[in-house]
Amino acid sequence: MLKSELIERAASFRSAEGDPSRHLSDCPALVLNADYTPLSYYPLSLWPWQTAIKAIFLERVDVVASYAREVHSPSWTMPIPSVIALRQYVKPSEFPAFTRFNLFLRDRFSCQYCGHPGNLTFDHVVPRRLGGRTSWENVATACGPCNLKKGGRTPAQARMPLLTPPIRPTSWQLQERGKAFPPNYLHETWRDWLYWDVELEA
Ligand SMILES: [Zn+2]
Fold it and tell me: What is the mean pLDDT of residues 45-56?
């Protein structure tokens, strides 16, 4: 059978009927790099099962572990992969993109003036009207009330010192930070490959 046919079939898999364990849509694969570390901690690198199975047929990944549940085509059956590893190492870029998500992650999703985790916005440390730029080094996570209170002033003028100086993080630093945010659900086969700052539930 041609590989293209296999891929075609993978896309039209029927679910194994009456499987007791999990819905197919709840069977994502944890994606590891070729060095068996997760591609990303937060958000956790997960692929839908269809994507994972296509990647298997394309020989881009190796299966590390599987769910008990299977999918099948008319001619064969395959356990749904729960952990896969890329065959080719993907080198992470040294510096992450300057995005809202990454900025919040750098600041651990908490206000950099009072530490509060809710109602988060972005604050220009040196206000734009005073020449402050929109950059890693001049934008900090701030809750709504702190942002309002600080207004168009510098931290010194407002007497609101920052809890941590805003820096441009490396990708490695952000990855490390992401380990503090474990997802609600961790399949048992994932746990050997993930290292969180907090203890896993038994
Ligand atoms: Zn605040």
Answer: 94
